[in-house]
Amino acid sequence: MTGSFRTLQGRRRGRAPLSHSWERGAAVSEFAMLAGLVSVLVLAALQLSFALHVRNTATAHVIEGARHGARADLAPEDGARRARELLGTSVSEDRQAAVTAERVTVAGMEVVRVTAMLTLPVFGPFGPGGALTVTGQAYAEGQ
Q: Which of 80, 114, 84 is CA-nearest to residue 96?
């Protein structure tokens, strides 16, 4: 009976001890280091996803503006105005820069092209800086 009690208190048969004395407290320091690294990675992923969301939303609004400006009874400037209105509802006012519209010829077809330039969203001091340019095109009606 004493032999089995000794085995439970000391080393288990054929296995390493559960912990070493030099490993005590290592979990706390490992957690602190990994928590910081994981937090930075999560914030970087949020930064990227927010920038992609703004780009996709701006692209959709500019394309809708191009479709609006390509109608037979409207001018390309009406499409730029429509894109500005849509961007104003989803993108903050300080990100909006310039929205332009023009009628161009692509492969022999009249096309209304609406272009918007806005700044990328940035959380904190890190992230992509500069301007974002998105373009939408639609075939002009009445050709």
A: 84
pTM of the entire structure? 0.73
Q: 72 and 142 in contact (C-beta within 8 Å)?
A: yes
CA distances (Å), origin 42, targets 35, 38, 121: 10, 6, 16
- Scored b (16 or more CB within 10 A) or e, 84-93 reads bebbeeebee
**Helix (H) / strand (E) containing 101:** strand 96-106
Summarize pLDDT for 90-129 with one digit per residue, the tens: 877 666 668 999 999 999 999 999 999 988 877 665 666 7
The domains of the chain are located at 26-139
